[in-house]
Amino acid sequence: MSKYRNEKQNQENELPVGKSEDVEFSAEMADAEDLEALQRADAADSRQERISE
Prior knowledge:
This is YfhD family protein. InterPro entries: YfhD-like. It comes from Paenibacillus lutrae. Residues 1-53 are annotated as: Disordered. By secondary structure, the protein is an all-alpha fold. It has two helices and no strands. The longest helix has 21 residues, at 32-52.
């Protein structure tokens, strides 16, 4: 692997994990699809945190 590719991969591994979503969520107005999307997003965040460690 070239030195440039190694450096680029290391930089990518050091990127911060995004936690801020710029959306409003109302549990009172949520339907089944909204709740499923929320669960899927939480699961994706958990997977990303494990990968980033």
